[in-house]
Amino acid sequence: MPTIEQARSWYPDTDPVHGFDHVLRVYRLAERLATVEDADLEIVRAAVLLHDAQGSRSAGGDHTGRRVHHHAAADFARQVLEAEGWPEARIAAVQHCILSHRFRDDSEQPQTLEAQILFDADKLDAIGAIGVARAIAYAARDGQPAFSQPSEHFLNTGEKEPGEGHSSYHEFLFKLQKLKERMYTPNGRMLAEERNRFMSEFYHRLQAELRGDR
Ligand SMILES: [Fe+2]
Ligand SMILES: [Fe+2]
After folding, report:
1. Which pairs with CB-CB distance under 8 Å and at least 24 residues apart come from 59-66?
2. Dist CA 40 CA 104 (whole Å)
3. Separation of 40 CA from ligand 1 center, angstroms?
4. Closest-lying ligand to the alpha carbon of 21?
5. Pick from 44, 74, 53, 65: which is nearest to 8 by CA?
6. Does the pLDDT of residue 71 top 90, yes or no?
7. Does the pLDDT value for residue 22 go beyond 70?
8. How many Cα atoms occupy the beta-carbon half-sphere of 174 within 13 Å?
9. Nearest ligand for residue 72 CA
10. Which residues contact 83 (CB under 8 A, 6 or more apart)?
């Protein structure tokens, strides 16, 4: 079983969005969900530690690696687990978790309880207080503000007008507030709804402060 210490070396220290801190938070959440749902903890833990181990965004701001990072991480997981002598069926189970965790690629959906737990825990880390912090860090890295007023067109269609920026609030409207509807486990759904309430309250408050109302 790969250890947390071993996994640390697979991730960049400098990535505020998909670095090892993210993996540790997902690990704690996934353990919690796995215990409640009575899932196979060893599969869940290995899948969490390996799920983003390859294809982090490069320093130059290149997104291409991220688009296929679940495939690269699944290949890497096979190498690591084969070297540890894991049986084929359990390696395949970990790979299925990793291959189905990417929100933007629904070609392989999480079929097993363990894959559903990785998916839920990974998405939970994008909402709530940590979700706000990550969304703002992500926006800042792309030179975008925490908040800019979305155009009517964006509010109605989710598509930006020419020249319209993508603030962290745009990301909240476009993707983050919808994650709660994608949860698979009952506990994941409950946590997601609570985190989403906090997040939308944060953006209401932020707008009020920006107007000088609070
Ligand atoms: Fe990922
Ligand atoms: Fe992740």
Report:
1. 61/141, 61/142, 66/18
2. 26
3. 21
4. 2
5. 53
6. yes
7. yes
8. 16
9. 1
10. none
- Given the structure tokens 């269609």, which residue do they identify? 157
Q: Which two tokens stand for residue 9?
A: 């070396």
pLDDT at 60: 46
CA of residue 210 to ligand 1 center, whole Å: 33
Residue type, 203: Y
In whole angstroms, what is the distance from residue 69 CA to residue 165 CA? 26
For 119, the token pair is 């998916």
Phi then psi dihedrals of residue 165, to 5 deg: -75, 180
State both tokens at 31: 């353990």
User: Tell me, what DSSP letter sits at residue 176?
Assistant: G
Give the Cα separation of 99 and 76 in Å (integer).
12
Closest by Cα among 70, 68, 67, 65 to 47: 70
User: What is the spatial distance between Cα 125 and Cα 2, in angstroms, rounded to a whole number?
Assistant: 22
Q: Rounded to whole angstroms, how far apart are CA atoms 118 and 114?
A: 6
Q: Count of CB atoms within 10 A of residue 187's CB? A: 17
Instruction: Give the pLDDT confidence of 144-184 residue by residue, as tens digits.
Output: 999 999 999 999 999 999 999 999 999 999 999 999 999 99
C-alpha 211 – ligand 2 centre gap (Å):
35
- Report residue 146 as tokens: 């925490």
